[in-house]
Design a protein that fits this description.
heterodimer; A: Cytochrome C Oxidase, Chain A; 6 strands; about 65% helix; globular; B: 3 helices
């Protein structure tokens, strides 16, 4: 850009722009390296809590007739163990790893939406604190980690225990859904120039599929949680069979999320394995393209298995056969990956080091878990061992084998990157053997107790059924396992404190993250390198000093802006310069406002909850205030003799892509709601002998017409802006159209008779509310676009706000069509054919 | 969509997207047929839907991959394997519509 400067001076300039200030200023951090580490530290803390709870479980079950803890506390402990491990440890742990590592692997300086990363972190922390606080207060959830109704419904769980789960987990899941969109967008748009999709390291492919799975996997759970909380708080009977609801609807919604969730946890770990194994095999991964196909197959097949958790609820043979076949079939793409890893090791020159110990542990444990999974996919066997300790053994072999062992391999592989030091101590070796032996001693026995008929979740058992020594040895194994984890923790602390410094790339790895300094600077790369070969065959030790010297893309500090490259989704050609937002306390304040909403709901202050939601909305509207450009700049220098426009002047920027992904997520939630309504209409009891509802359905038609007109006006606004840089009047027309639609829908809701009387009215109310919320959102987006236009942030070339307004208004109108259709279907239930 | 690289990316998920849609369709037809007592027509409808869902899967599984230029060549070869897997999964998973009891 200007005359060359020294690497040290360049470092100081970039560090001043990207750094996180010390002291209280740390709370304003939006940097992915800082937040990734925070996610991982908090997740490991929750892992310790979950581990402690498991010790209490094993202490209770060590002997028959145990009086160590009573059944009430035991119910809370096993529920919290599962909840903490799944929602507060496993998902956030890989999120933290990916947030820390992905930009470095792909050659970016941060994730696509740094403030969203920070907001997600605070939501995770505050949501987790609600759950742990409830446990300390003795009111933790106690209906099992999957919260089956009617046990978790108000008549059987009258306290706030279930509300803690529903609201706390939904609060935590904000971090998962924001991370999913951010990871998806960052992989597709934020890579080093030249890094085509087929040059990405496999870790990025794994995370691309995982984030896609999260986008469509989490909404059913979020919808289920909302519906159950509505039932508990406002008596809307979605799951109450006496009023046309059905407990099985909860099971469907939960497992529509719950089964893909297992793969959502496994795939990032498999990505880590696909990165680590080639390093120690000293060759590139075998079957790169076959693995991509296998990941895609796994991602989709994992959504076709959910009913195998419900084989015993009473479903026809045909449906059992669908899900049984799909459950067995998913083993094939898994096996493709396992054989690719084994083949890589067999055809390379394997070297033995600590990460490989844990890779060995993964192979041993995960394959056993996979084989018992195939056994459980068979309906007759599944029926025999349903809800026994065999299932507990299987799920721990799969999850510990498929996530914890790869995580430990990853910790030992990448810890030097985070700490800048290598371990001098060999605690990791005895730690491995304690974990490996302790794990197998704990959980292998559960296959046997399960086959002998020992049910899950029981707090005591008689002494004459042959379970005694198996349970005692299982508990001893649990304590050995814990000692192993304690040694790992000690090893980590010692490495951070006394480890040996090293130069770049201590393992001779071939991925880009090792080209940064270690520990990495806040901006990752002083200059972003061009990647012309597959990015798992690079020479980080050569690239590192070159990029640190400023040779590459954006190798300068310009106007105090946080700049990184945006690329073409498929080819990786340089496309635009992204300007990322700098540190701010806004995410923290917004998360606190969101927490106030959830706490108001939790403690039954329903009148206050809307204020929390409103405060969150207002704070969100402040986020873009400092972003954007007030004039068209045209292409700017990006180094390497090339130029590119700024992101605001590019049609395919990350904001547009992220909103498209958010709409897919939203549409999945809506599809789950439609499924729920149809499921109750077709399957649920107590729908016989109904008469049509007396509803002014013309209001629904008028709302639909108003929303359609608003959608059309938003399209005209975008077109007018694209031609002349105007569109304000059409945006105002959009707002008016959506206000009219919301008014009609509110009137329709007010005219609905007795929403608590039957699930039919409850579903109609949910559909109306969804429609009104999205018409309101469409109007808000148009209003926001008008405000940005009036401030000078929108022009014919800078039209992001116009596109977003059009997208959300189009979606609002489109969603109303099936919503009104289902409302009509439900309202006319019982009418003469 | 005229760009071959984007086409290849779409092909990568096309087979299993159709597989998922067919899954939803067949599961819905099974439930609706039982709820509204379609009787003897139920199984022919299911088999018809099964065969209809296999047609696009078969077309995708037989489609020639790109052989020039990157990333479309590598992407479309991975897509070919994914789409063949989708066809195999479709044939196997939905086969029970031909013989299994549809209703309780």
């Amino acid at each position: 850009m200007s005359e060359p400067i020294s690497p040290i001076r360049l470092h100081k300039q970039l560090e001043r722009i990207w750094m996180t200030p010390p002291g209280i200023g740390r709370l304003s951090s939006v940097n992915h390296t800082v937040l990734g580490k925070r996610f991982m530290v908090v997740a490991l803390s929750f892992f310790a809590i979950g581990g402690f709870l498991s010790m209490l479980i094993r202490a209770q079950l060590a002997t028959p007739h145990s009086a160590f803890i009573g059944p009430e506390i035991y119910n809370q402990i096993f529920t919290m163990h599962g909840t903490v491990m799944m929602f507060l440890f496993a998902i956030p742990m890989f999120e933290g790893f990916v947030i820390y590592m992905l930009p470095k692997m792909l050659g970016a300086r941060d994730m696509a939406f740094p403030r969203l990363t920070a907001y997600g972190f605070w939501c995770y922390l505050f949501g987790g604190m609600i759950l742990i606080g409830a446990m300390l207060a003795g009111v933790a959830p106690d209906s099992g980690w999957f919260m089956y109704t009617p046990l978790s419904s108000r008549p059987y769980t009258p306290g706030i225990n279930a509300d803690v789960w529903l609201l706390g987990i939904t609060f935590v899941e904000i971090s998962a859904v924001t991370a999913a969109i951010e990871i998806f967008v960052s992989i597709l748009k934020m890579r080093a120039p030249g890094m085509a999709l087929t040059r990405m390291p496999l870790m990025a492919w794994y995370m691309l599929v995982t984030s896609g799975m999260m986008i469509v996997g989490f909404p059913p759970l979020i919808l289920g949680s909302i519906l159950l909380e509505l039932e508990r708080a406002f008596d809307l009977p979605f799951f109450d069979p006496t009023r046309g609801g059905d407990p099985l609807l909860w099971q469907h919604l939960f497992w529509l999320f719950g089964h893909p969730e297992v793969y959502i946890i496994f795939l990032p770990a498999a990505g880590a394995l696909s990165t680590i194994i080639p390093v120690f095999a000293q060759r590139q991964i075998l079957g790169y393209r076959a693995i991509i196909a296998a990941i895609v197959a796994m991602g989709f097949l994992s959504f076709g298995l959910w009913v195998h958790h419900m084989f015993t609820v009473g479903i026809p043979h045909l449906a059992l056969a669908f899900f049984s076949a799909a459950s067995a079939l998913v083993a094939i793409p898994t096996a493709v990956q396992i054989f690719a890893w084994l083949g890589t090791l067999a055809s390379g020159k394997p070297k033995w080091d600590v990460p490989m110990l844990y890779v060995f542990g993964f192979f041993f444990v995960f394959v056993i878990g996979g084989l018992t999974g195939v056994m459980l996919a068979m309906v007759p066997f599944n029926t025999q061992v349903h809800d026994t300790h065999f299932v507990v053994a299987h799920l721990h072999y799969v999850l510990v084998g498929g996530f914890v062992f790869p995580m430990l391999a990853g910790i030992y592989h990448w810890m030097p990157h985070i700490s800048g030091r290598q371990s001098l101590y060999r605690l990791s070796v005895p730690a491995f053997w304690l974990i490996f032996a302790g794990f197998n001693l704990t959980f292998f026995q559960m296959h046997l107790t399960g086959l002998m008929g020992m049910p899950r979740r029981i707090s005591t058992y008689p002494s004459n059924w042959g379970w005694d020594w198996l349970n005692l040895s299982s508990s001893i194994g649990g304590f050995i396992l814990t000692m192993g984890f304690a040694l790992v923790l000690a090893d980590m602390v010692l490495q951070f404190r006394y480890g040996r410094f090293f130069r770049r790339d201590p393992w001779q790895a071939q991925t880009l993250e090792w080209a940064t300094a270690t520990p990495p600077p806040s901006y990752n790369f002083a200059a972003i390198p061009r990647i012309d070969i597959r990015a798992d065959g690079l020479e980080p030790a050569r690239i590192g000093p070159v990029q640190a010297g400023g040779a590459g893309y954006l190798g300068f500090a310009r106007e105090d802006r946080q700049e990184t490259m945006g690329v073409d989704m498929a080819t990786g050609a340089p496309e635009h310069v992204m300007i990322l937002p700098r540190r701010t306390y806004l995410p923290l304040w917004t998360a606190l406002a969101t927490a106030s909403f959830f706490l108001a709901m939790l403690f039954g202050f329903y009148a206050l909850a809307p204020f929390g939601a409103l405060a969150t909305l207002i704070l969100f509207l402040l986020w873009p205030a400092s972003l954007g450009q007030k004039r068209d700049q045209g292409p700017v220098d990006i180094g390497m003799g090339e130029k590119a426009p700024l992101d605001v002047e590019c049609d395919s920027n990350v904001s547009v892509l992220a909103n498209r992904a958010a709409i897919v997520m939203d549409a999945t939630l809506f599809a789950s709601l439609l499924f729920g309504g149809l499921f109750l209409l077709v399957v649920a009891p107590n729908w016989e002998g109904m008469t049509p509802l007396d509803l002014p359905l013309w209001l629904a038609g008028t709302a639909l017409a108003a929303a359609a007109l608003a959608g059309g006006a938003s399209w005209l606004a975008r077109r007018a802006n694209g031609r002349e840089g105007r569109g304000g009047p059409w945006l105002l027309a959009t707002v008016l159209g959506q206000i009219a639609a919301v008014a009609m829908l509110v009137m329709l809701a007010l005219a609905l008779p007795e929403p608590t009387a039957h699930a039919r009215q409850a579903v109609i109310l949910a559909l109306i509310s969804y429609g009104a919320l999205h018409c309101g959102l469409g109007g808000l987006m148009a209003g926001h676009g008008y405000w940005r236009l009036s401030q000078g942030y929108v022009s014919a070339r800078r039209q992001t706000e116009m596109v977003l307004s059009w997208l959300w208004n189009l979606y609002a109108g489109a969603a109303l069509v099936p919503a009104v259709g289902l409302i009509l279907l439900l309202a006319y239930k019982g009418a003469a054919p | 969509m005229s760009r071959p690289d984007i086409q290849a990316l779409v092909l990568l998920i096309a087979g299993f997207t159709i597989w998922s849609a067919a899954f939803v369709l067949l599961y819905a037809l099974q439930a609706l047929g039982c709820a509204y007592d379609w009787g003897a027509a139920h199984r022919p409808i299911l088999i018809g839907a099964y065969l209809a869902s296999l047609l696009p899967l078969a077309w995708l599984a037989l489609r020639r991959p790109y052989d020039t230029g990157e990333p479309q060549t590598s992407l479309s070869r991975a897509a070919l394997w994914a789409n063949r897997a989708a066809l195999g999964a479709g044939v196997l998973v939905y086969l029970p519509v031909t013989f299994a009891t549809a209703c309780i």
